[in-house]
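[agent] plan:
  1. take the single chain provided in the ticket
  2. run structure prediction with default settings
  3. attach structure tokens to the ticket
  4. add a short note for the reviewer (M.T.)
[agent] executing step 1
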Amino acid sequence: MSPDTAARQEPLHRLPVRLLGDLVSPRALERILADGAQARGKTPETLVPGDLEDILKREVFKRLQLSVPAALAKRRVSEVIGALMEAAPSAPAATSGEDLGTLEEGARRFTLYFDWPETQRLRGILGVARQQQAAGADLAPLVREGQDLIALMERRLEEGLVAQAQDLAELKAAFGRVQGMGGKDVRRLESLIAQVEEAQKGGVLQPAEVERARSITFTLRRLLESSVVQPLPSGEVPAPVDPEAQARVLALEQEHASRQLADLARDSEALRRARPELEARLQALRAQGAAGTLSAEALDTWRRELEEVREAELTRQRSDLAALEGGLAALPPSPAREEARVALGVARLTLDGGGLATDELRDLHATLDALQAAPEVAARRLELQRDLAELERAARDVPGAADELAPGLAAARDALKRGETPDVAALWSALERRMAQAAQQREDFDARADHVIREYDTVRHLAGETTQKLGRLADTLRAQRRLGRMSALARERYAQTLTDAEALLAEAHAEYEAAQQVTASFGADALSGLLDVFDFGGGEPEAPLPAPEPAPTVPAVPAFTLPAGLLGGTPTAETAEPTGAELPYDAWRVRGGQLVEGPADAAAQGVAALLAQADDLGGLTLRLTDDRAAWAARLEGAGVWRLARGPNAGAIDDRVGGWLAGAG
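[agent] step 2 finished; step 3 output follows
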């Protein structure tokens, strides 16, 4: 979605507030627009695109320069003016606020996401708005809040589609590794991937399907990587456990657990605001994840705890709402009490729909306290309370702002309870400083993303796994780069994608240098002629490696088979992982373009880089000769190559031909 998509369903004067709300507080922008409209003899609702453009170029641009660099302020103002011009023909009139069509259409569009807090609150607003409309009351405040919620959901959907596209790319890559295992789990995974891909094309989120696909992928990859498998009946010797395989299995388990924890943290955000004590538990689990000790059992336990706490909190909030209703009913009629009654109705419908109304109940308590105070101070207290609530909501999307402002917000609310007037302007100033820092951080993120994308284009011709992963992350960065104003979660994902991509880019550059060294050693055509030196199994090689020779002095590595039923299919034979047994002289085992067994050797590492490309091309054997030595390699299985060096091809065949072909 482009930054102005949601604007087509909101009045024009609200668009600058939404699109620039990450640089300057919405409160300040609304004041600037109101002052600019008054200076032109109008109200904000009656400003035409030309008026808004003039205000943006003058008053708003001047205000932005106080907090962000002039170049950034100019670019963002230009973007808003462009959005205004595009939205102007279809923008609705902003005079009465009584048309609920926009809110009803938004509620229908987001029906699938019934568990989002924004969706639950929008349903509550719609229910109360219909009641107010029947009573002939002013709907403008409710319509405005509903439009703000729709804009938030538009942003959440857009960010979710970027994350889902990244998940889909990773699932497809993982499916390529496990596809050959066969069985019902593989077929189920293929079906889920197709389902998610179709949803992605239609702009629909399917988090449950993505989670199921990730779980199946994890199970299959763990099974594929694990060395804990059953030896064939003919083998009495226990299978050697490869430490590298164990490490890969552990890494997979921790990666899967960390992802599940991130999902739980995202889904429990509203609950943790209501029950702050849950935050300590989350941080403890994150610490376990960082230490590599996070277990599936711990996650299952916390998931059950969250469900229990949520039910208890819903019960508590419903009881609290009933008490507030009684307190408001005891007050004499007034416009403020009527406004509170409307807010109470929204909170009730939100709770009835299964959503939490933490912020709404807190504000209602403050409103009740203000209305029970002396009439001459009640109006001012209510205004300050609304200001603090808006400030708190705005801070949640700004990195570091919520934590920094939390003590000040608590102190300001305590001061209000004592009948004092807190300095809210100082809190807004602190928030805007954080906004300016966040805007500069976003500029830095975008510049880093541009650099990664450019550099990827210089190494994309390399066919190794590193380059493939980097390519997927580059695609994600392009999508993240196009996002407009970001939520805190999307910003965290952007930062993580950049960190991962930059690390892979460094690896890709190292592999490129190694490939250049191979080119220097074996000639200019060494890389471009890979298709000539790899045997893909389509015919006989010019000089086939001999069949395995008996090697009675070297114990044979037992073959392994997967336990029956694990994949829902027939057990299949698997080649053993590297065993760590002593290798012949001038011989190595290679995985993923790296020497994993055998002595350190720069020339052998150069050939290992070629073997990474052989993996991607489907090669089975390789032979090379340079001015110093000859090389021969054969795929052992499970991504492992056997590599040997000798003075010529014949000497290699005589000395280690049997080992290359699989003996020993």
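[agent] step 4 note for reviewer: Confidence is low (pLDDT under 50) at residues 1-8, 93-98, 227-238, 529-580.
[agent] ticket updated
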